[in-house]
Amino acid sequence: MAKVRVGVIFGGRSGEHDVSLVSARAIINALDPLRYEVVPIGITRQGAWLRPADAKLALDKGLIDLSDAQHAMLLPEPGHGGLVSIESGLSIDQLDVVFPVLHGPNGEDGTIQGLLELANIPYVGSGVLGSAVGMDKIAMKTILEAQGFPQVDYQLIRKADWLLHADRIVGILLKRFTFPVFIKPANLGSSVGITKARDEAQLRAGIDLAARYDRRVIIEAAVPGVREIECGVLGNDEPMASVLGEIIPGADFYSYEDKYIGNRAKTVLPAELDEDLAHKIRGLAITSFIALDLAGLARVDFFLDDKDNVYINEVNTLPGFTPISMYPKLWEESGLSYEQLVDRLIELALERHAEKSRLETDFVPSQPVA
After folding, report:
1. H/E run at residue 15
2. Which of 55, 142, 229, 268 lies at a C-alpha separation of 20 to 30 Å from 244?
3. DSSP letter at 225?
4. Could you tell me the CATH number of the domain that includes residue 86?
């Protein structure tokens, strides 16, 4: 049988660029060379797409900003199904399926998914709508709130309003929240740009920091006695939930440094929870996955307070895939190895694409249009 040609896209114009590279290396190493032919596709921090040979070299060297690299592009044209050299205009690589290992904006937010939809190429993960909603914390919270999912109190701040009316906004926040509070960019992950503020000065500094990464900022109430519980979801129309894991931060909260640099955070797998409570959380993970119209994979993060009340924190549609990332570890604890997980995600991508291909795209009216 012919090998499946898997385009692994990594890098990108995002604050999570470096995390993407680590995830991509792990996924590429996990793909069985007897079954798959890997086509690495690197996107620089400036947004340029690298041809596979240069992308592989860049990935091996730990960077993708090669000044002399040759560039490629993916045409938004059904039936073409591959990369085209920008220099020559010639087709260079056909793709059977794409694994977009892109975290954050310009990759996890529906942008790359829209391009792949136009090109009619199967891809791992959620579609345009699910990806966009899952990336935008405000949109996600609004939809989940409308469907009755439990969440902590939150407030949206627009950067444009903050620049004009900072004092008035601070006054409103001080009346609504008690310290500490968390400040986050609305569209980013890996804890980039997040601050835990304990007073007004830290609140102002935290909003300034988050506004460097996004034009919208979210303020969230802190949860007393918080425990951070995570659940992996896998599937399309009939998703499954993994065992639960607990994150015990090594710092004051689960920061970027705690996740990827200091390695001070601890994970408890499976989380030590009452069976009924664990069942409830796994059920919420699956129903939120369906409510947001997700596909393939997601990691759903929860807060537990000191009275065991459950709150959905956020849903990650392309969670980290590094060797120490929680999503693959949750499934490994559930009996699915890293290699098996990658295989299953590719199968789900092909299944979803095949199902969507059966939908009708033409409409012939019974009467001619006047």
Report:
1. none
2. 142
3. T
4. 3.40.50.20
